[in-house]
Amino acid sequence: MVEFLRFRDDEVSESPAVTVDAFGEQSNAGAVRIEPGDDARELLPHLAHITRVEVNFPVFGDGRGYSAARILREAGYEGEIRAVGDVAVDQIAYMRRCGFDAFEPEKAMNEADVKTALERWENVYQKTVDGRAPIWALRHGSADA
Question: How much is the pTM?
Answer without folding.
Answer: 0.83
